[in-house]
Design brief:
Layout: H1 3-10, H2 16-64, H3 74-104, H4 113-139, H5 143-171, H6 178-209
Helix pairs in contact: 2-3, 2-5, 3-5, 3-6, 4-5, 5-6
Transmembrane segments: 78-99, 114-136, 148-169, 175-195
Protein name: Transmembrane protein 163
Family: Belongs to the TMEM163 family.
Length: 215
């Protein structure tokens, strides 16, 4: 019970109608606060899980080239691509879940100064990483590196998309759904890419397992 509740309970209630209205307003405020806390917790869990998947995709690429003998290992290449395909599918579920939730609850894009700075830095960093991974992947003819570059490219697009959506919403409040819609589109693209990767690479893992020693 907070100080306002104590004050009101100690006050002589000479106006029962006003008393009931006050209680309803207090209950409404508490309900809204609880919903905001649940939303913040859910967004935090989804963001941490998605960040974990991004780190995992980088770890699997590092494992792919962890020693000199592994550079020319087709088996490792295919295994890395399979794991990346799984990561893409899981990441797409996180993105789709958040986007659909935002659309269903009509959550507008909100960007404060801190989020603006983080989005700019994240977008630029992911864009540079994507270019570097694409170039290195072409030199090494590594689909795993190119796939990880695609993952970084998606991170750059998502970093800038929230800024674009917030700017559009600032001038056109009826376009509150832009960020959620972009999230759904990005999530579906990632899911399709992940499924295609699994479809292409799982048979190759089975083929190379018999004649190439796994290290």
């Amino acid at each position: 019970m907070d100080m306002m509740d104590i004050w009101w309970s100690s006050k002589d209630s000479a106006h029962p109608l006003y008393d009931r209205e006050f209680v309803r307003n207090r209950e409404r405020e508490k309900t809204i606060k609880k919903e905001e806390e649940r939303k913040t917790l859910g967004d935090g869990l989804r963001d941490r899980f998605d960040a974990t998947l991004d780190v995992l995709s980088s770890i699997i690429v590092l494992w792919r080239y962890s020693n000199a003998a592994a550079v020319h290992s087709a088996h490792r290449e295919y295994i890395a691509c399979v794991v990346l395909g799984i990561v893409f599918c899981l990441s797409s579920l996180c993105i789709l879940g958040k986007a659909i939730h935002d659309l269903a609850t009509r959550v507008p894009p909100e960007v404060d100064d801190f989020l603006f700075s983080v989005s700019i830095v994240s977008g630029l960093t992911c864009a540079l990483l994507a270019v570097a991974k694409f170039m290195l992947g072409r030199v090494l003819t590594s689909r795993a590196l190119i796939t990880d570059g695609f993952n970084s490219l998606v991170g750059a697009i998502m970093g800038f998309s929230i800024l674009i959506s917030a700017e559009v919403f600032k001038h056109h409040t009826d376009v509150w759904f832009l960020d959620g819609t972009m999230g759904v589109v990005i999530g579906l693209i990632i899911l399709a890419y992940g499924v295609k990767l699994l479809k292409d690479m799982v048979p190759r893992v089975r083929q190379t397992r018999n004649y190439e020693r796994f290290e």
